[in-house]
Amino acid sequence: MLRTVKARTAAGKRALKKREPQTIEEAKPAVFIKGTTTSQLVMSVLKDLYSLKRPDAVLFGKRNEVRPFDDPRPLEFFSQKNDAALFVIASHSKKRPHNLVFARTFDYQLLDMVEVGVEKGVPMEMFKTTKSAVGHRPLLVFSGDAWDSTDELRTLKSILLDMYRGATSNDMVNLAGVEHLICITAESAQKVYLRTYTIQLKKSGTRLPRVELEEMGPACDLVIRRCRTADTDLWKAATRVPKELKPQKEKNIERNELGDKMGRIHMHKQDLGKLQTRKMKGLKRGPAEDENEDEEEGQSKKRRED
């Protein structure tokens, strides 16, 4: 493991401070690793996934012997050395051909990972269409009812969301800056399809443009293999919300399941006799009605006195 050193310069102190936990995190960097043996298919998919993640990604040029299901220590070493939390490892063997492992760490410790096999893949270079610019955040669409059926699919969905969601931003989104869409479809508990499209905004004759999708690649069919879920205590520490980000409670204000604000207002009892109604000539009170009302009030007052 890397030894802990103290910063001696101002630049070193800034670098160590940048590695400390942040209240609002930036985009998490990812490391793409080639195993000892790989195939052309799995390498093309690995490079395309790296292209979608850039510039917050590092692709190792040399091969590394990393088997996270057998020994997670090399992965934790790379996590601490590169200050990265996300990993994609490509390998190929007779037992597990065209293999990809999506892994995630927390505090330089292995959190969870899922292993998939690439059954079919079409690289990005085979699609002769317009590609999105580097560094733009994509739209993520998870379609299918099977995503919450197994732990493997839940883990894969969480890791992919963590990898491609980008940095946290405000609620304002520039429509022209959304250039591509990543669609991941779970056909069953074992089969997943990954497709990527560019978003074309065309004239529609109205204020809202007409949106068309054009496939840009990569397109690959994945099959679920092994999975390692997160430890309970480590997952609780990883998902802890900082005190600064917790919403402050407001008196008599609640939120429903959809996030809408629900308030409670306390009002005095309303006197319907003083309610202002529509003024109509036919309903106007005359002098005789006022005299009769005064006589009735005087008689009722006299009875109470008696």
Automatic annotation (TrEMBL):
Q: Is Transmembrane one of the keywords?
A: no
Name the SMART domains for this protein: Brix (SM00879)
The record's section on PROSITE patterns has:
BRIX (PS50833)
The UniProt entry's GO CC annotations, sorted and at most eight, read: nucleolus
Tell me the compartments it is located in.
Nucleus, Nucleolus
Q: Which GO terms describe its molecular function?
A: 5S rRNA binding; 7S RNA binding
Q: Does the keyword Nucleus apply?
A: yes
Q: What ranges does the record list as Basic and acidic residues composition bias? A: 245-272
Domain Brix as annotated: residue spans: 28-233
Using the UniProt annotation, give all residue ranges assigned to the region (Disordered).
1-21, 245-306
Q: Name one GO biological process term.
A: maturation of 5.8S rRNA from tricistronic rRNA transcript (SSU-rRNA, 5.8S rRNA, LSU-rRNA)
Q: Which UniProt keywords apply?
A: Nucleus
Which family, according to UniProt?
Belongs to the RPF2 family.
Protein known as = Ribosome production factor 2 homolog
Say which species the protein is native to: Spizellomyces punctatus (strain DAOM BR117)
Question: What lineage is this protein's organism placed in?
Answer: Eukaryota, Fungi, Fungi incertae sedis, Chytridiomycota, Chytridiomycota incertae sedis
